[in-house]
Amino acid sequence: MAITFTVVQRKNPQKPTAAPKYYANIVGEGKTTLADLAKHAAATSTVSKADILAVLESTFTQIAEDVADGKIVYVGEYFTLQAGGSSAPADSPQEVTAASIRSVRTIFRPGKMIRDALKVAEFHKKG
Predict the structure, then answer these.
(1) Which residues pair with 26 in a beta bridge?
(2) What per-residue confidence (pLDDT) applies to 31?
(3) CB 38 within 8 A of CB 56
(4) What is the spatial distance between Cα 27 and Cα 59, in angstroms, rounded to a whole number?
(5) Distance CA 106, CA 64 (A)
(6) How far is CA 14 from CA 9, 21, 23, 40, in A?
(7) Distance of CA 86 to CAs 28, 81, 108, Å?
(8) pTM
């Protein structure tokens, strides 16, 4: 399997009169669901799909709760998740409160296994 990309044309906003350039744009192809992961794990082990789904649901629920509690969640050599965000500026430290936080996002850092898999990934042009 390979990673699919399309070709997109983009102008440089800093040089509006310059000719546009063409870039590879990686696109998602298909999807893998939690049920798919459980089915695969069940096929390669002696544990049933239902048992695997129960464990995965419990694990991901705990991951979500821990990230919401401000913890950095290390999932082995697979990935790390944590909360990040941005806030409004203030003139003094005393003016910074929880209300200063404008947005919250999830920071995903791939681990060694995912980084290594992407190093050897193949690409193909869509269409």
Answers:
(1) 5
(2) 84
(3) yes
(4) 29
(5) 10
(6) 15, 13, 17, 48
(7) 28, 17, 16
(8) 0.75
